[in-house]
Amino acid sequence: MKKSDFHFILPQELIAQEPKKNRDESRLLVIHRNNDSIEHKQFFHLIDYLNKGDVLVLNDSKVIPARIFFLSDTKKSVEILLIRQLSEDTWVTYVSPGKRARKGQELHHISGKLFAKVIEVNEDGERIVQFKWDLSIPFILLLNAVGTTPIPPYIKTDSDRWKNEYQTVYAVHNGSVAAPTAGLHFTDTLLESIQKKGIQIAKITLHVGPGTFKPVKTELLENHKMSFEFFEINDESAKLINQCKQKGGRCIAVGTTVTRALEGSVENGKVVSAKQNTNLFITPGYTFKVIDGLVTNFHLPESTLIMLVSAFYDREKLLASYQIAIQEKYKFYSFGDAMLLI
């Protein structure tokens, strides 16, 4: 299969530049996979499509202020984007411009509170960076002081303005450099109503890295390599999901990150607790082992995300539904509207 098989043209005005004032008032396009029928709803109607005994699975990873601007020894600005933590003081990063990030390069933050050293340059352009700071201060607190939220580049408004909105209401575990955006539509009130209806909620953690959104540069999908992302599924969540499936309930994944974590942790037909990295690349032809429904946003053309959703439904039918969404003026991408496939 080719990258170009997932191309579509999106009018720029449909790229959402700001979130809804009330998260759950986003629009919701509902696709019934059994008969290909489509409904146009609002996100708070999601509860109407969930049944008692189902389990809704959320990614509780929290976006960190992962963009930090440093100065080189020649006083030139260098941006470091944190990707994945390797140890207390060492991270896999992207550094821009790369020519200022050779092995051994030392950088400092203007505050004088944080220093960085490039200790390795990987073949794919990633840099392994070791940080130094006053260890009496937790690194995340230092990041809150010196870092900024990495809002996607297609959002042209001030990133600091939306840093609170670019976070799910159930985010707990620090580590993501991009939000699991399907979850941005939930409110505490909606989640409470869902639980009162008898739908169980399971939480897993997958720390979203920029590799999730990395453009596919190879025309043939089999030549594309996904970047690794860390995920954790605890015993309680694995048990909830497996019991739900055994009793005939449905597992509804909120987002592609949840989908990749669940599908990447199956042994003998069951979800197992795990702490590991995954680079699972789901494309059409993949046989899903866990999820029965998917809540997701509208994704970029030719992205690994639209490829995953196409695998869960049908490529041609999904692209046709995208055209309907465009005609109906749905908003796309991170702050955009949502889709439910059941």
Task: Give an overview in words.
The chain has six helices and 19 strands. The two termini are 25 Å apart. The protein folds into two domains: 240 residues, 3-Layer(aba) Sandwich (QueA-like), CATH 3.40.1780; 80 residues, Beta Barrel (Thrombin, subunit H). It has a nine-stranded mixed beta sheet. A six-stranded antiparallel beta sheet has the order 5-6-7-10-9-8, with no helix packed on it. Helix 5 crosses helix 6. The longest helix is centred in the last third of the chain and has 13 residues. The protein is globular. The chain is of the alpha/beta class.
Quick summary of this structure?
The chain has 342 residues and is α/β, with parallel strands linked by helices. Helix content is 17%, strand content 28%. It has two domains: 3-63 and 163-341, QueA-like; 67-146, QueA-like (Thrombin, subunit H, Beta Barrel).
For the sheet with most strands, the description reads: 9 strands, mixed
Q: What would you say the CATH architecture of the largest domain is?
A: 3-Layer(aba) Sandwich
Distance between the termini: 25 Å
Low-confidence stretches: none
How many domains, in number, for the residues? 2
CATH level-four homologous superfamily name of the largest domain? QueA-like
According to CATH, what is the topology of the largest domain?
QueA-like
CATH class of the largest domain: Alpha Beta
| Overall average residue pLDDT | 94
Tally the beta strands: 19
- Going across the biggest sheet, name each strand in turn: 2-1-19-18-14-3-12-13-17
Shape: globular
Put simply, the count of helices is 6
Helix and strand composition category: alpha/beta
Radius of gyration from the alpha-carbon trace, in angstroms: 20 Å
Helix content estimate: 10-25%
